[in-house]
Amino acid sequence: MVSVKEKELQITEQRRLRDNLFDISSRIMGKEGAKFLFKVYDLARFDIFGKPKGAIGSIDVTNRCNLRCRHCYFYAHDYESEPELTDDEWIEKFEGLKKEGFPFYQCSWIGGEPLLRKSLIERGMRYFKSNLVTTNGTIELPFWPDVNFYISIDGPREMHDSMRGKGTYDKIVKNVNRPNLKILLSMVITRENYRGVETFVDEWRERGGVRGVLFQFYTPVKGLENDNLWPGWELRDRVIDDLIRLKGIHGDFIFLPNEVFEMMRSDRCQAITRDCLFSQVSFCFDPQGREKRPCMMGPMADCTRCGCVLPFHLKALEDKRLVLRELFMSLRKAIGRPALH
């Protein structure tokens, strides 16, 4: 039986070995090359041999937001009744997790609007090997070249502004004009905006400045009066047909592989969400640092009608051929090659 102290020593030695290997690699190929090599190694190791518990997940950075979007799941929870953790309290939590051998692989910094607490993210992301920030895009993006920014956008200007407020679309257009950052657009498809999907893709493909677009479907949330936004199964299947057609035109600019879209169809999706891989391997913390279940959307989400891409993407990655293809795509993007068509 390994004691707690012996386990802590093992974890410390493993981290020291990794740090030494990283230092040697940095001297040989440069720091950026070493970062990419280690990231690809972790991705391949986790996707081929399975992700350990806590390898991926999310942190609700704050319970505050500068917008009040009609379809946001966050407001189904009363997080504002208690104070959110301070920066120092979060760092104390990370240090405690480190002693327990927490994987610290990939973290999505969400909210609320996470960029309202940039200082926390700057301190916290040093613990993780890969970081994503999901933001509404109305706040200027900090210069974090190692971070993947996911900008929430709801279709063309008129559709987007009807959901998030007048003028928010133009703020996004201004703020994403950052060629030195890694930016992806994320659109949640609803019954109100599905007709704008093709226009949205065409516009941003022509505009440039982003690496691609990601699509998800609206998930109903108990306690919010917006069930009418759910597209329904028949419409969802028709939209999936359109997404696969558009991917045939735009290639990897549409971020997800067709295998994921196929799994989101009405005749396959519920079997996948009933045994959700994301809920099994992920960590999700609310603004008070407490664990959220079953995922970042919390217990009020209707998992039987889940439109989040994560359960389906993880399921698709059980096909190791897809894993290798995604690793190849990551390599192409890292060296600046254009998307495949």
Number of helices: 13
In whole angstroms, the N-to-C terminal distance is: 54 Å
Q: Percent range for helical residues?
A: 40-55%
Question: What class do helices, strands and sheet pairing give?
Answer: alpha/beta
What can be said about the biggest beta sheet?
Answer: 7 strands, parallel
* Mean pLDDT metric: 86
User: What characteristic shape results from the CA principal axes?
Assistant: globular
CATH class of the largest domain: Alpha Beta
**β-strand amount:** 5-15%
CATH H level, superfamily name of the largest domain:
Aldolase class I
Radius of gyration, in Å, reads 20 Å
- Overall number of structural domains: 2
| CATH architectural category of the largest domain | Alpha-Beta Barrel
- CATH-defined fold name of the largest domain: TIM Barrel
Topology, please?
Blueprint: H1 4-29, H2 31-49, E1 56-60, H3 87-99, E2 106-110, H4 118-124, E3 130-135, E4 148-152, H5 157-164, H6 168-175, E5 182-189, H7 197-207, E6 212-217, H8 233-250, H9 258-263, H10 269-274, H11 277-281, E7 282-285, H12 310-316, H13 320-334
Parallel strand pairs: 1-2, 1-7, 2-3, 3-4, 4-5, 5-6
Helix pairs in contact: 1-2, 2-13, 3-4, 7-8
